[in-house]
Please model this.
Amino acid sequence: MTFLKTSKTLKAGSKTLPRNYYTQPDILRQEFINIFQNNWICIGRNSDLTDKGQYITVQLGDESAIVLKDKKDEIKAFFNVCRHRGTRICNNQEGKFSNTIQCPYHGWTYDLNGKLVGSPHMEKINDFKKIDYPLFPIQIKEWEGFIFLNLSDNPISFNQAFKPIERRFQSWDLQDLSVIDKKTYQVNCNWKLIIQNYCECYHCPMIHPQLAEIHNYLGGRNDFFKGPFLGGYMDFNLDKESITSSGKYCCPPLKNIKGNDLRRVYYYSLFPNMLLSLHPEYVMYHTVWPNGPDKCIVNCSWLFLKESAISNKDSIYEAIDFWDKTNQQDWQICEYSQLGINSTKYSPAPYSGQESLLAAYDNYYISQME
Ligand code: FES
Ligand SMILES: [Fe+2]
Model:
């Protein structure tokens, strides 16, 4: 939802992506291979898994991951593929394992560390050793209360990949915040249109008249304008304190937010599919999941300090409802955008100076697709 200033990275005349990037199944397949299976992908908050044995499954193209909390309260992830004949083991989006994970086909059974512990009628098979057939592990990283996973066999280290923003959000004490509400939206557009739409506020006066009263679409600066992390801040108008229906704080500002940060919202996109919006008193994040070339699923969560949310249980909805409505305004225009792009008459056109982050996103995206 940003910003001002033509960045150094926006070459004069940078254009929107060609039509096939928004419509073609082959491109989507390539995105899963090159991008979603090679980057650190945020799949939720560590507070989503509270109990031992609790799990969620995550679908990324043809790959599926089981993410669970083990007996030692550690979060682990495995490919959702049985080592016998490959069956997808777990077919629910969430649930709880007792002590083991059992394949529904022939009953091979794994412990919560992925070790094969049961394989009926295999004892007499020559050279068969259970130890050789664990579930394939997936690398996991917890950062600021978020869970990230990387499906690659040889991933870049998370710390190296996230170095530019490692401590950027420290003042919000993100690890202490809880998900107080979340919503899932099914949107009929290519997933990148959601990200690109988020990266500019050129549309704010037309699409979000209420948001435009809180911050001026020209009132921002980017501090990350190249590479995988993009974004910056927007100043609130003089009589506004935050993004809520009243324009006032919906609960007290977070304790380490000081100075100018009390009068700003920060918007960042974290490549490929995470959007992080930091307000003085709360944080919102989105993750965007391709579901076909012209469909996606958007998950949006609102994070607050739990005690603050409890003592302000009504007013926090001034923020949540405001953004729910703003989200829906965005999704609708993204769907209209997709419909126009589907036409043979769509062709790439120059980005404006307000859309420098889109050009930067596209540049980074293209570099990963090559
Ligand atoms: S495929 Fe899983 S037990 Fe046979
Ligand atoms: Fe918007």
Observations:
- The CA atoms of residues 245 and 270 lie 27 Å apart.
